[in-house]
Structure formats: C-alpha cells, structure tokens
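Quick log. Single chain, no ligands specified.
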Amino acid sequence: MQEPQAPVLDNLNKAEKFGLLPNADQWLALRRLRNQLVHEYLQNEDELFSALQAAKQGVPLLSQVAHTLATKVQALATP
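-> predicted structure:
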C-alpha cells in the first residue's frame, strides 16, 4: 500500500515549519520503518534486529513530538 509522497512531504514540512516536528526527514524515516515492521515479514534475524534497534532509537523523537503537541493543545484549550 503506497500513498502519494508529495502530500505527505508537504504536510510534514508544514508541521516542521510550525514547530510541531523537529525534523520532517526523521519523521518520514520512522514512518517508513513503521511500515516495514508492520507490513513486511522480516525473515532475516539480523534485519529484524536492526529494524527494532532503529525503532527504539526513534522513541525520543516520538516522545518529543507528543509532548510538543500536548503542550500546544493545552495552550489552545486554556482561555
């Protein structure tokens, strides 16, 4: 399942511009990794191990984005 890349890249670049993402390219790389882990059956143990290590390294970015979004939502919800 391949979606058009241009709209995704445009949205990620906008999110980066608005300060919601620290780096659109890193987010896109994590998204590709997520798709690989979910949609492909990695038979090679070394490939699977590498993919899982890369996913673990992406956790700080995901946490940072979640914190940023929660902070911005809270600011919008506060009168």
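The helical segments are 5-17, 24-39, 45-77.
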